[in-house]
Write a structure and sequence with these properties.
The complex is a heterodimer. Chain A contains nine helices and ten strands. By secondary structure, chain A is an alpha/beta fold. Chain B starts with a helix and ends with a helix. In chain B, α1 runs antiparallel to α7 and α6 packs antiparallel against α8. Classes of the chains: A alpha/beta, B mainly alpha.
Chain lengths: ~240, ~210
């Protein structure tokens, strides 16, 4: 059963058409990796899935709600869709614990004590229990990104979107973040990951989507897409990054 | 020295009036500024326009003209009767409000878009995002410029003596003409303003440290 259905999605900024005609189905518990050259539209596509970008045309159905419907309560839909950003976007004026609890407390109206209990469990999970009272400015990039993952998970989302989560990290920090993501995938989280980590896509992805020029050019299970790409553009891209 | 000691009680009485007017006007002015800044940033054209028109009109006219318009101009209309203290507070509040509006708008816009995106992505509403995520960060960045504008507004209150408010400046004039000691009196008045403004800037640097950017 599909938890996300994308039909004829188009996205333009003024006259520039970034997404031309995207059609996709994402199944529950599936881990889908989006790869492609920069400017191919993969980040924009991801950001359309929780409507951080306004959608020019087409339909995106998330968890049974058509989020292109102007009457939809986006705040409600977004509670089920966690997002992790390339630049973390932690709240610098709040402690790590407050970063993780603010969503449940303000958006879900959970009481402070249970929000903190859950937050501490999640911080244990991402290996940062001892940083609960630190401020984001005191953490390394990899630690920040793991807090950002905990912050998203605190809303108990059904879907997690990752927008190049390791691109802004020092190489030695990448592994810690990918390990947390791997664990999430094993626990059955539905994940859509824009990434340049081909190793991660190959190992953890159930499916890899290759995008170029605002279209989905090719999609397949990782072994096939990496081992036996069908399109010239896929071949050209993979020959450069692998 | 005798002149200063005998006139000081009167000058300090004037100082009380100055501080009273300043504190009330600056609080109202800040609220006006916040409201106008939000109008200017609202996703509705007509609201942007109203906010912008307010800022342009207040910034584009002299303080004294605004004071005369409110005290003499409005009071000449039927059904309106403002005493001079009220008119003074309103003028300082509106004037500071326009400048605060620009300071607050710039402060809000200086916060990275990613902060809004992150807040909205965990399901916070636009209002919650503004209140819990954007404004606290923007406020810290705005503090030095807010201090600056507050000091300017405090000094603007000395113009209120013109409409007969018994503030520090007005008391200075009274004492100077009563004692014929203009040099000593105005030196003292200047020193009192300086001390108050110095204390204000100390308070501001305390606040800046207290809400240090992390």
């Amino acid at each position: 059963m599909s938890i996300i259905t994308v039909k004829n999605l188009q996205k333009s900024y003024g006259k520039v058409e970034v997404l031309k005609d995207i059609n996709a189905e994402i199944k529950e518990k599936e881990v889908v990796c989006l790869i492609g050259p920069s400017g191919s539209g993969k980040s924009t596509f991801l950001r359309c899935l929780n409507r951080l970008e306004d959608i020019t045309n087409g339909h995106v159905i998330v968890n049974g709600h058509d989020i292109t419907d102007p009457k939809i309560n986006l705040n409600k839909v977004r509670q089920d869709v966690g997002m992790v950003f390339q630049h973390f976007n932690l709240f610098p004026h709040k402690t790590v614990l407050e970063n993780v609890t603010i969503g449940p407390i303000k958006a879900l109206r959970v009481d402070k004590a249970s929000a903190e209990k859950l937050a501490l469990e999640l911080l244990v999970k991402v290996g940062l229990r001892e940083k609960a009272s630190s401020y984001p400015g005191e953490l390394s990039g990899g630690q920040k990104q793991r807090v950002a993952i905990a912050r998203a998970l605190a809303m108990k989302p059904k879907i997690m979107l990752f927008d190049e989560p390791t691109s802004a990290l020092d190489p030695e920090m990448v592994g810690d973040v990918l390990d947390v993501m791997k664990q999430l995938a094993q626990e059955g989280m539905t994940m859509i990951v824009v990434t340049h980590e081909m190793g991660f896509a190959r190992e953890v992805g159930d499916r890899v989507i290759f995008m170029d020029g605002g279209y989905i050019v090719e999609e397949n299970i990782p072994e096939e897409l990496f081992g036996n790409p069908q399109h010239e553009r896929t071949k050209a891209f993979l020959s450069k990054v692998l | 020295m005798d002149t200063i000691m005998t006139t000081l009680p009167y000058l300090l009485k004037g100082l009380q009036v100055t501080i009273y007017i300043f504190v009330i006007a600056i609080i109202i002015g800040f609220l006006i500024g916040l409201l106008v800044a939000l109008l200017r940033l609202a996703p509705v054209k007509i609201l942007n326009w109203i906010g912008r028109a307010f800022v342009d009109v207040i910034r584009g006219t002299p303080f004294l003209v605004q004071l005369f318009f409110i005290y003499f101009g409005l009071n000449s209309l039927p059904f309106i009767s403002l005493d001079n203290t009220t008119a003074g507070i309103v003028t300082v509040a509106i004037n500071a409000g326009a400048y605060f509006a620009e300071i607050i708008r710039a402060g809000i816009q200086s916060i990275d878009r990613g902060q809004t995106e992150a807040a909205r992505s965990i399901g916070l509403t636009a209002t919650q995002t503004m209140r819990y995520i954007i404004l606290p960060q923007a406020f810290r960045r705005m503090l030095p410029t807010i201090t600056n504008q507050s000091i300017i507004s405090l000094k603007d209150t000395s113009l209120l003596s013109i409409i007969g408010i018994a503030d520090l400046t007005q008391q200075g004039e009274i004492q100077a003409s009563a004692t014929f000691e203009a040099f000593k009196i105005w030196l003292t008045v200047g020193a009192i303003y300086f001390v108050i403004i110095y204390l204000l800037s100390l308070l501001a640097s305390y606040l800046e440290r207290r809400f240090e950017l992390r």
